[in-house]
Design a protein that fits this description.
Elements lengths: L11 E2 H15 L11 E7 L10 E5 L8 E4 L2 E4 L4 E2 L2 E2 L2 E7 L8 H13 L23 H17 L14 H8 L2 E2 L9 E4 L5
Parallel strand pairs: 1-9, 2-8
Antiparallel strand pairs: 3-8, 4-5, 5-10, 6-7
Helix pairs in contact: 2-3
Length: 203
């Protein structure tokens, strides 16, 4: 049962609720069974501007192609430092932009965004993105078709619901949710900085 703001004793932890939803999605979607939640951290980022236009979510890989920790560009070598959280090695950060993410009018739209970002995870969950052939490796030749694939997964997920609704908070826009559950908080994590070193490995 959704608590009212008068009964909410603590702030609503959006990251924690999204983590439970992501775990349920991964556990019930064969196309995402490769996603290892222990290597993912769910975060939030505040939008500077309101409205529905703009980025709603973003998956940030913490490794280069095929899971490499370094990348050579000419004489320079770029290195991604190891990122740990509570003893876990984190290979992916997934950000949800608030309040924009919650402003989509339909639950299916919001879940399609969740599936869109999770499908970016490399099939080996090695810290790299899933890569498609060609220059548009992140989404393939058509971003629209990529998102429609994510939407189809979201529809199957909703159709298979057995009464458990871990996405209940997605029924509301940001203002309505906040009025029902109280202040909305979330995990804010800055992006790790990629270091540039020489080909010999010296700074």
């Amino acid at each position: 049962m959704l608590p009212s703001s008068s009964s909410a004793c603590q702030p609503f932890d959006f990251s924690a609720h999204m983590e439970r939803l992501v775990a349920h999605v991964v556990g019930n979607c064969p196309e995402l069974s490769h996603v290892k939640l222990e290597h993912m951290l769910v975060c939030v980022s505040r939008c500077r501007h309101g409205g529905r236009r703009g980025v709603h979510a973003r998956l940030v890989p913490l490794r280069f192609q095929e899971g490499a920790t370094t990348r050579h560009l000419g004489e320079r070598v770029y290195r991604i430092p190891e990122f740990t959280y509570q003893g876990r090695e984190i290979l992916y950060l997934v950000y949800f932009y608030l309040p924009r993410f919650l402003e989509s009018p339909q639950v299916e739209d919001k879940l399609a965004t969740v599936f869109h970002e999770l499908y970016h995870v490399h099939p080996e969950c090695n810290g790299d993105l899933r890569r498609f052939p060609g220059r548009a490796y992140a989404h393939g030749p058509s971003r629209r078709r990529y998102h429609e694939r994510a939407r189809a997964m979201a529809r199957r997920y909703l159709a298979a619901a057995d009464g458990d609704r871990p996405w209940w908070f997605l029924d509301y826009d940001f203002t309505t949710l906040e009025s029902r559950v109280g202040p909305i908080i979330g995990r804010h994590v800055g992006l790790p900085h990629v270091h540039c070193v020489t080909a010999t490995g010296r700074p």
